[in-house]
From TrEMBL:
Domain of life from the UniProt record: Bacteria
Gene3D superfamilies found in the cross-reference section: Winged helix-like DNA-binding domain superfamily/Winged helix DNA-binding domain (1.10.10.10)
Protein name per its UniProtKB record: Helix-turn-helix domain-containing protein
Gene source species: Ammonicoccus fulvus
UniProt keywords, alphabetically: DNA-binding, Transcription, Transcription regulation
One family name in Pfam for this protein: HxlR
Keyword Transcription regulation on entry: yes
Length: 237
């Protein structure tokens, strides 16, 4: 297969065009997206990026490493396990991913009913996160999120949301005991709530421990209330 020529080889000195040379190959930004919240093994990336084959994934990782976007290292828990993670420069692509998400949400062809990986859904919530002016003190909310695309559901991934009057943040981390509430659910159920008005306190696929009003606060801080004209929000399941 002939290697694709770069835009620079056509005497195009635009930095945006060069950015496409770096991460514009098919699957490249999707692989980057799945690394934005932390390192993953090759098999994890295969599971999270549905549709990509091992040969293409290998090629994309090699390209991204060569371009300085991704780096690899041995896992501290297994000498035979290799982890892929974004370089500090590669981490700055979250700004690009957020901008693309905010722009594409106005597309009439956006597949609202399609599922997401756990990290992708959390990144979507991060992209729309806003302050909670009604809170006098910051509160922490835990999330145990399993991938609805895979059956049976794999072990859930843990995240923590910190909500405050100054802003809201979501990170991928173990859930501390200081959280005021914890939500355990799958990506399809949470996406329905983030995109609409689903009541998770009554949903059969959602379990809440602690203060349920904290879950309502989390959804209020990250919900996309209006998908735009001519589009409807997906229903549950």
């Amino acid at each position: 297969m002939a290697e694709r020529r770069t835009y620079g080889s056509y005497n195009d000195g635009c930095a945006a065009a060069h950015a496409l040379d770096l991460v514009g190959d098919r699957w490249a930004m999707v692989v980057v997206r799945e690394l934005l919240l932390g390192p993953k093994r090759f098999v994890d990336l295969q599971n999270d990026v549905m549709g990509i084959g091992p040969t293409v994934l290998t090629r994309r990782l090699v390209d991204l490493v060569d371009r300085g976007v991704v780096q690899s290292r041995r896992s501290s828990t297994s000498s035979r396990s290799e982890l892929y993670e974004l370089t500090p420069w590669g981490c700055r692509l979250e700004e690009v991913n957020t901008a693309l998400a905010r722009w594409a949400v106005e597309s009439s062809a956006l597949p609202w009913d399609a599922d997401m990986s756990p990290d992708t859904l959390i990144l979507t919530m991060r992209a729309h996160a806003r302050p909670c002016p009604e809170l006098e003190e910051p509160v922490a909310v835990g999330l145990h999120l399993s991938d609805a695309r895979r059956h049976p559901h794999p072990d859930p991934v843990s995240y923590v949301a910190v909500l405050s009057a100054d802003g809201s943040s979501l990170t991928k981390t173990d859930i501390p005991q200081s959280t005021i509430a914890t939500l355990t659910t799958d990506t399809r159920t949470l996406k329905t709530a983030v995109l609409g008005d689903a009541d998770l306190t009554r949903h059969p696929d959602a379990a809440i421990s602690g203060d349920p009003t904290a879950i309502d606060t989390l959804l209020a801080a990250t919900r996309l209330d209006d998908p735009g004209p001519g589009r409807s929000l997906p229903g549950p399941g």
